[in-house]
Design a protein that fits this description.
41% of the residues lie in helices and 22% in strands. The chain is an alpha/beta fold. Among the domains are: 33-111, OB fold (Dihydrolipoamide Acetyltransferase, E2P); 119-274, Succinyl-CoA synthetase domains (Rossmann fold, 3-Layer(aba) Sandwich), CATH 3.40.50; 362-417, no CATH class.
Length: 418
């Protein structure tokens, strides 16, 4: 039997050991290096940060197991699942002990529709990070726009649905339509131009971008970055009415209002005239009822006030106040007379005290005040030698006199004035 590691050909007499054959297979596969392969993921399992799965050929019955180590899995920029079509940069590995072939994945990305979805997802995350999807950016629509801008396909069902349903709800509504391709290579540029043109129009109060549904690929123009950024930059409120529930284009995320269909958009942008008239009638009825209740309440209050005694016989108030006024007048007169009497009595007493203290009272008792000609009161006989002219103040008036000089009183030996 041949030794392990021998390079001699294997024969019936000298067969290779299984390990040798496996090692040679592993060495040959190792020389293959890394290769790009394409297939469909039929199994995707995440364990301990590593991914273990299987990749199936797109047209033939061939499957290979693959492994994505944690370091590579952390660098993947999109989500993968069973059924995804992918391309992968792999390196084949042959496990000698188990005799199985696996491939180690170094790079992995979607292809075809998967690649497109991955690109849209990256754009979605970018726009979301920029804040273009924030609810705070949403602007309210006008209650009744005077002129509605409409971006849609020429002679499309979407155009007819929006205009017909809006006119049925409010016959006076007006439209300014900008026709654009809504699918194909020209769609994104023409829809962008339509949004920008209507946004520049000062008469347009709301813009509607409408299309009557379609498959995912037909709706791709409404996820184009140019269309989305034009809608986000518009100062006029914008309504997205693409009409597709399963796959929402990015335009729905930045629009101020998303309508499920063009018909729904018509209902959302203009009020129903019948409903508004009914609302007015209801408001009038409520106002009339409220006013009637208010008037009845005030009438009842007036009747209650009129029934009170004070209003039933108002002269009673005058009579009561007249009697009270008479009492106050009498009281005032009495107090005034008493005050006058008290003042007269006080005045008499003051006058008596003044009279008692007055020099005139002294004169009336027989006394005289002698004054020199200059008015000085004579207090000493020496002030008036004989021949001095004097003026004597008596109780009844004044008289002139001449001093005879000092004379003796006789008994007291004191001098006196004549």
């Amino acid at each position: 039997m041949a030794e392990a590691g021998s390079s001699s050909p294997a024969t019936r007499e000298t067969p290779w050991p299984v390990a040798l054959m496996s090692e040679k297979i592993a060495a040959w596969i190792e020389r293959l290096g890394t290769v790009w392969i394409e297939g469909e993921i039929t199994q995707w399992q995440l364990r301990g940060g590593h991914v273990y799965g299987k990749l199936k050929d797109l047209s033939q019955d061939a499957t290979v197991s693959f492994t994505v180590w944690r370091s590579v899995a952390q660098r993947l920029t999109s989500e993968f699942a069973q059924g995804d079509r992918v391309v992968a940069l792999v390196k084949p590995n042959f496990w000698v002990k188990g005799g199985t072939l696996t491939v180690q994945v170094f790079e992995l990305s979607h292809v075809g529709l998967g690649e497109l979805l991955e690109r849209l997802e990256r754009l979605r995350r970018q726009l979301h990070a920029e804040g273009l999807f924030d609810p705070d950016r949403k602007r309210p629509l006008p209650f009744l726009p005077g002129l509605i801008g409409l971006v849609t396909g020429r002679d499309s069902d979407a155009e007819k649905d929006v205009i017909r349903n809006a006119t049925l709800r409010w016959p006076g509504v007006r439209f300014r339509v900008h026709h654009a391709a809504v699918q194909g290579d020209r769609a994104a540029a023409e829809v962008t131009a339509g949004i920008e043109a209507l946004d520049r129009d000062p008469e347009v109060e709301v813009i509607v971008v409408a299309r009557g549904g379609g498959d995912f690929q037909n709706l791709l123009p409404f996820s184009d970055e140019r269309v989305v950024r034009a809608a986000a930059s518009a100062t006029t409120p914008l309504v997205s009415a693409i009409g597709h529930e399963a796959d929402r284009p990015l335009l729905d995320e930045v629009a101020d209002l998303r309508a499920s269909t063009p018909t729904d958009a018509a209902k959302r942008i203009v009020p129903d005239v019948g409903e508004e008239l009914a609302g007015i009638d209801q408001a009038r009825a409520r106002m009339s009822s409220r006013l009637g209740h208010l008037l009845q309440h005030e009438t009842d209050r007036i009747l209650q006030l009129r029934g009170r005694p004070v209003l039933a016989s108002p002269e009673r108030i005058v009579d009561e106040r007249a009697e009270e006024l008479v009492r106050w007048i009498a009281r005032g007169t009495e107090l005034a007379e008493r005050s006058v009497e008290d003042r007269v009595r006080a005045l008499a007493e003051t006058r008596a005290r003044l009279t008692a203290l007055s020099p005139k009272a002294t004169l009336e008792r027989g006394y005289t005040i002698a004054q020199l000609e200059d008015g000085e009161v004579l207090r000493d006989p020496a002030q008036a030698p004989a021949g001095t002219a004097l003026r004597l103040a008596l109780a009844g008036g004044r008289i002139g006199a001449t001093s005879a000089g000092a004379v003796s009183t006789g008994s007291g030996g004191e001098s006196a004035e004549r």
